[in-house]
């Protein structure tokens, strides 16, 4: 088994996502702009036991294949908020992937944010926004 790590430490909350086809979701997230920090292959071919993906502007997401780890997480049930200074660029990449747009990009009036929401191949919702709290 080959384990790769970038050595970068993230000091924040890490969301965990489980996928019935984690390899497809991994490639999808990489195409959106995440970078792979660590990948531990699963027991079966094309499965992932544990993967750590970093967002270039900060934060980390954990990904594993369904059944690889004991977890209450289920595919398609997560909703994640990713802070980015460039939501339009991320949306362009998402459209290039054929991502389902759940909420079109909008400038919020209640709070200062430009954001949109897309669904990943499993149905999880990913909001990319300039709002960082």
Level-2 CATH architecture: Roll
Average the pLDDT over all residues and give the rounded result. Answer: 91
Assembly state (oligomeric):
single chain
Extract low-pLDDT stretches: none
Judged by helices, strands and strand pairing, the structural class is: alpha+beta
Largest sheet: 5 strands, mixed
Helical stretch tally: 2
- Helix fraction? 10-25%
Strands in their spatial order, largest beta sheet? 1-3-4-5-2
Can you tell me the number of structural domains? 1
Secondary-structure element order, N to C: EEHEEEEHEEE
CATH class label: Alpha Beta
Shape: globular
Distance between the termini: 40 Å
How would you sum up this structure, described in words?
The protein is of the alpha+beta class and 133 residues long. It has a single domain (12-67, 78-129), classed as 2,3-Dihydroxybiphenyl 1,2-Dioxygenase, domain 1. Helix content is 16%, strand content 39%. The protein has a 5-stranded mixed beta sheet with strand order 1-3-4-5-2, covered by helices on one side. Strand 4 (48-54) and strand 5 (60-65) form a beta hairpin.
């Amino acid at each position: 088994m080959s384990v790769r790590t970038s050595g970068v430490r993230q000091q924040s909350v890490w969301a965990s996502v489980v996928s019935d086809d984690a390899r497809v979701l991994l490639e999808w997230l990489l195409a959106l702009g995440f970078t792979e920090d660590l990948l531990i292959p699963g027991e079966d071919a094309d499965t992932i036991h544990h993967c750590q993906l970093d967002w270039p502007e900060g934060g980390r997401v954990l990904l594993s294949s369904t059944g690889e780890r004991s977890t209450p997480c289920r595919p398609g049930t997560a909703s994640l908020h990713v802070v980015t200074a460039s939501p339009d660029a991320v949306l362009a990449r998402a459209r290039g992937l054929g991502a389902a747009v759940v909420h079109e990009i909008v400038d919020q009036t209640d709070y200062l944010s430009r954001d949109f929401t897309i669904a990943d191949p499993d149905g999880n919702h990913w909001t990319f926004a300039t709002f960082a709290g």
